[in-house]
Amino acid sequence: MNRTTLGAVGIIAAVIIGFLLGRSMDSASDNAGGRTISSEPAVLYWVAPMDPNYRRDEPGKSPMGMDLVPVYADEAGDQTGIIAIDATIVNNLGVRTARAQRGELSHRIETVGYVGYDEDTMQHVHTRVDGWIEKLATKATGDPVQKGQLLFELYSPTLVNAQEEYLAALRSSNKLLLRASRERLAALGIADSEITRLDTERKTRQRVRVYAESDGVITHLGVREGIYVTSATEIMSVAELDKIWVLAEVFERQAAWVKKGQPAMVELDYLPGEMWHGTVDYVYPELDPKTRTLKVRLRFDNEARTLRPNMFARVTIRGESTGEVVHVPREALIRGGSVDRLVVALGEGRFRAQPVDVGIESGDRVEIRRGVSAGDLIVTSGQFLIDSESNIEQALSKMDGAEKPMDHSQNQMEPTQ
Predict the structure, then answer these.
(1) Is 218 helix (H, G, I), strand (E, B) or coil?
(2) Rounded CA gap, 106 and 254, in Å?
(3) Hey, where are the domains in the chain?
(4) What's the pLDDT score for residue 264?
(5) If DSSP codes are grouped into helix, strand and coil, which group holds residue 182?
(6) Model confidence over 189-201: pLDDT tens digits?
(7) 65/54 Cα distance (integer angstroms)
(8) Which of 47, 61, 310, 339 is the most exposed place for a label (fewest CB within 10 A)?
(9) Residues 239/117, Cβ–Cβ less than 8 Å
C-alpha cells in the first residue's frame, strides 16, 4: 500500500515538474522571439511608388494600379528632417546624386538672340529734290550692290536748271558765280564725277545718275520705275554684311554681369558645332518693360557671310570669375516661396531636406552660400518626391507631439476597400 502510494505521488510530481519546465521554455522562446521581432524595423505605412502623398496603413494598390511599398521606421526617423526610404523605393524613383564642389564659378550667361544688320554700315538713299525715277538699276530687295554701281536715274527739272546755270557760269568766266553754281550742284546731291563730266562735255543730262557709296545688299526698296519722289521718300536702304550684330536678351538678375568688351560666342542651328567669336559691343540703358530683360548688342565679323539677318542664335557671354565658392548642379535645387532647399543623401537610405542660401547661377551650376559643404552628396534626380516625403514626416511628427495621448494609428488614413 505504501509502495503504491509512493509511486502515485512520484508520477504526480513528475507531471507537475514537466508542466512547469514546459512553461518556462515557452516563456524563454517568446522572449527570444520578441527580441527578434523588435530588432527588425517596423512598417510605418504603405505608400504609392509614384505619389508619396498617397499612403495607407496596410498593403494594397495605388490609384494607378501599382502595389503599395512599405516605409519602415528607422533610427534616423526620430531626427528632425531625416527620413529613411527603402532601397527598392530609391531604385524605383531613379535617384541620382552628385558631390557639391568647391571652385571658381564664372559669370556665364547663356541666352538667345537674333542676327541683324550692322546699323553703322546701313545707308538710307534719298533725293534732295523732287522728281521721277526714270530708270531703276536694282529692282529687288536683297540684291547685292558694289561701291560705284548705278542705283537709279532721276529726272528732276530742278537739277536740269542747276546744270544749265553751272554751264552758264563756265561760259562767263566769273569765278565767284562759278563757285556758287558748283556749290549749289553739290548741295542738290550731284556727285563730283558728274560735275567733272559737265566741265569736260559742257552738256546737261536730263537724267541724273545716283551711285552706291559702298558694298552691301539692298535691305529695303521703296520705289519702282516711273514713281514720283520727294526729299521725304525713302528710295532704298543699303547695308553691309561683312560685319553683323547679334541682339541678345539677358535676364534682369544677370544684368550686372554684362559689360562692354566681354567675349561672346554664338552658335547657329543650321551649322551645328561651329562657333563664332565676338565681343559685347553695347549694353542698352533700359530693360524691356514686358519681358523684364536687358538688350545687349554683340558684334561679329562675317567675312564669309554665313551669318544672315534674322537668324536665331544661341549666345554665350563670359563675364568675370568669382572666387572659391561651393556649387552644385542647378537641377538639384528646389526653389521655394521663402526657402530654397537641397536634398542631401546621408547614406544607407537616409535623406535630409536642407535649407540653403543660393548665390549666382552660371550655366548648369548654382552657387550655395550656406547650407552644404564641398563633398556633400546631393540628390539631383527624384529630389522633389523625397522632399515632399520629408515635409509630410515633419508635419506628422509635429502632430504626434501636439497630440501625445492619441494613438498614431488614428492619424492614418483609412484603407480603401
Answers:
(1) strand
(2) 12
(3) 1-40, 78-103+324-411, 108-118+241-322, 123-239
(4) 92
(5) helix
(6) 888 888 999 989 9
(7) 12
(8) 310
(9) yes
- CATH architecture of the domain 108-118+241-322 equals Beta Barrel (2.40)
Q: Are 415 and 140 in contact (CB under 8 A)?
A: no
Cell of 368: 550655395
Output the pLDDT for position 28: 45
pLDDT tens digits, 375-403:
899 998 887 777 776 655 554 454 454 44
pLDDT at 41 over 70: no
Cell matching residue 132:
521721277
Whether 123-239 and 108-118+241-322 are alike in CATH topology: the answer is: no
SS3 399: helix
For residues 371 and 396, the model is more confident at: 371
The residues facing 353 across adjacent strands are 343
Instruction: Please give the residue that has the higher pLDDT: either 343 or 39.
Output: 343
- The CA distance from 340 to 337, in Å, is 8
Cα 347 to Cα 345: distance, rounded to the nearest angstrom: 6
CATH class (in words) of the domain with range 78-103+324-411? mainly beta
Rg (CA), the chain: 43
Question: Residue 407 is placed in which grid cell?
Answer: 494613438
Question: In CATH, what number does 123-239 get?
Answer: 2.40.50.100
* Residue 291 in grid coordinates: 519681358
pTM: 0.58
Cell of 4: 503504491
214 contacts: CB under 8 Å, gap ≥ 6 = 121, 123, 147, 238, 240
3-state secondary structure 4-71: HHHHHHHHHHHHHHHHHHHHHHHHHHHHHHHHHHHHCCCEEEEEECCEEEEEECCCCECCCCCECEEE
Percent of the chain with pLDDT over 70: 79
Q: pLDDT band at residue 23, thresholds of 50, 70 and 90? A: low
For 139-155, the pLDDT digits (tens) are 899 899 998 899 999 99
Count the alpha carbons within 13 Å of 225 in the hemisphere toward its beta carbon.
10
β partners of residue 111:
315
